[in-house]
Amino acid sequence: MKIQNIIKIVSAIIGVLAAFFLLRIIGTGDDDIKMAASMGDFGAVSPLVELARIVLLITIAVTLIFTLLGLFSDPAKLKKAAISVGLFLVVIVISYVLSDGVETPLKDGEVLSASGARWVGTGIRAFYILAAVAIGLMLFSGVTKIIKK
User: Fold this and answer.
1) Is the model's pTM score more than 0.70?
2) Number of structural domains in the chain
3) Are residue 13 and residue 68 in the same domain, yes or no?
4) 3-class secondary structure, 39
């Protein structure tokens, strides 16, 4: 059986299940669902939410599988991907080194640890570095196109 046929069958099953759950929710009505939810009963909505989670997990799995198969099928692609991941890790390490951590009280009374604060700073600095690099590359690309004309 071809992969396309399997995908069509799985898609049809998911579509029928989603339509069934949606009709069940519509048939129950907003007021009944709200009343049941206020008492902790989410039985009308839970199956549709679980189906959405399953679809998300299937999508993630299929994407990862085909991405990895594509990478490992071509050594040049694998080398480029490894270089990109390495450069990203360099940006993370630089951001981590530049960040400092101080215990910070939060609004809900909890305390953000020094390590947690350092990782937050790392994420912010990594974002700024990557944004600056992206803007710089767009400007460089635009300038080179103008010069070549």
Assistant:
1) no
2) 2
3) yes
4) coil
